[in-house]
Design brief:
Layout lengths: L5 H13 L1
Length: 19
């Protein structure tokens, strides 16, 4: 998932890794 907001993208990646 890629977003226009770098911080949001990092947050999504972190949540995906934690899942």
């Amino acid at each position: 998932m890629a977003t226009l907001n770098p911080k949001a993208e990092i947050n999504f990646q972190t949540l995906d890794q934690m899942a």
